[in-house]
Write a structure and sequence with these properties.
This protein is 56% helix and 11% strand. By secondary structure, the protein is mostly helical. It has one domain.
Length: 57
Amino acid sequence: MIVGASDLLVQPMTKLAAMLDCRLAIIPDAGHLPQIDHPNELDAAIKRHLQEAARSE
């Protein structure tokens, strides 16, 4: 899951990520649309996830 730090849903998403046992990336200074607010940071978070997933195979 990827959320913006300023998104009002960040707290519920943090709890949901913990319940689902999934990774959570929080983009600093981003709101509800981190892909618009900080696309480069979002791309970097996705790239990190894919690299870590490839290593664990």
